[in-house]
């Protein structure tokens, strides 16, 4: 400990010694200053300095003792090698645990990637028996039973689809292919997927596409529309209609999905796109997952699509997709 203390304080120890030698040198060169008096001064100052060092030693070494007692602490750990300077000590004992954390983080990241790949593989594997199940359901003659089975099949299909896109979402930029997308066939495909559910609730669709095409990615735009249409069908009253309209507004294309269901409370409007949020008025609704609108909003961001909602409780809700202008989208993508 003494050795470490002296090495850490060697700079001001050296300064003190140099000052004493300088005083002796001046007395030696200047005959007006008695050399014996200067020797006496040097002796007294050395004694006082020694007493000062002895008094300060316990306080100064307390820091080093604490360092030795702290093992693998992220603030400061024990001295790796006796006699190292304080700068090395701090640098070594902070960077070493950081390196360990980085290694653990890399291992966790690799494990998560493996789990993600395994889950994606599992989802694709499940789709095969799910498709076979749909074909079997088509052969059921009992209409009521067939409708019930189809509805439950659709719920499983949509949940798997959500999970699949959720896992792909962190890499959505690598999956985008922007092109002119025909809205009519895309909408009809999504509506056809929900046909059995709509028939069960007696829900119809009124589609009016003044603007037939948009610049976007067909697959991810289809996923966004699937979430909005599913949400509209789920909360629409039986026998009502869902309206889908495309219009041009201020040089941009707007696509609206309007339902006539229970609507959204004003206090919930700001939160409906949050992950896991369902409702404050119907918090007991266990059928809602709170993921559909969250995933739709998150998918829309890389496509530079804005999603807005307007709703009056008891009168339904209107979700509006605002697509970017063609030249703005090209500039953003760096084309």
TrEMBL record:
Q: What name does the UniProt record give this protein? A: histidine kinase
Q: Which InterPro entries match?
A: BphY/WalK/GraS-like, HATPase_C_sf, HATPase_dom, His_kinase_dom, Sig_transdc_His_kin-like_C
TM spans (from-to):
12-29, 35-55
Every copy of the Histidine kinase domain together lies at 121-327
Q: List the EC numbers from the record.
A: 2.7.13.3
* Reaction(s) the record says it catalyses: ATP + protein L-histidine = ADP + protein N-phospho-L-histidine
Query: Where on the tree of life does the source sit, at the highest rank?
Result: Bacteria
């Amino acid at each position: 400990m003494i050795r470490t203390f002296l090495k850490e304080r060697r700079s001001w120890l050296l300064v003190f010694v140099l000052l004493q030698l300088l005083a002796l040198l001046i007395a030696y060169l200047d005959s007006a200053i008695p050399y014996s008096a200067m020797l006496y001064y040097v002796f007294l100052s050395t004694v006082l300095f020694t007493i000062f060092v002895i008094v300060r030693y316990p306080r100064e070494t307390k820091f080093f003792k604490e360092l030795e007692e702290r093992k693998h602490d992220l603030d400061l750990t024990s001295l790796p090698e006796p006699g190292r300077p304080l700068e090395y000590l701090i640098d070594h004992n902070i960077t070493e645990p950081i390196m360990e954390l980085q290694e653990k983080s890399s291992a966790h990241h690799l494990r998560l990637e493996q789990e993600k790949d395994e889950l994606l593989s599992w989802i694709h594997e499940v789709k095969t028996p799910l498709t076979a199940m749909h074909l079997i359901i088509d052969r059921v003659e009992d209409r009521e039973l067939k409708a019930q089975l189809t509805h439950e099949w659709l719920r499983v299909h949509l949940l798997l689809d959500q999970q699949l896109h959720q896992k792909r979402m962190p890499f959505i930029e690598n999956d985008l292919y922007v092109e002119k997308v025909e809205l009519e066939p895309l909408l009809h495909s999504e509506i056809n997927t929900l046909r059995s559910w709509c028939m069960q609730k007696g829900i119809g669709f009124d589609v009016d596409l003044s603007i037939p095409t948009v610049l976007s990615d067909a697959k991810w735009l289809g996923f966004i529309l699937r979430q909005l249409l599913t949400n509209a069908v789920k909360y629409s009253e039986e026998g009502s209609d869902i309206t889908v309209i495309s219009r041009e507004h201020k040089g941009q294309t707007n696509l609206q999905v309007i339902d006539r269901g229970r609507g959204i409370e004003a206090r919930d409007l700001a939160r409906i796109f949050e992950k896991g949020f369902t409702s404050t008025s119907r918090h007991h609704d266990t059928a809602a997952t709170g993921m559909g609108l969250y995933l739709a909003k998150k998918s829309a961001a890389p496509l530079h699509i804005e999603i807005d909602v307007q709703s009056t409780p008891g009168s339904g809700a209107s979700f509006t997709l605002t697509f970017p202008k063609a030249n703005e989208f090209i500039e953003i993508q760096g084309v």
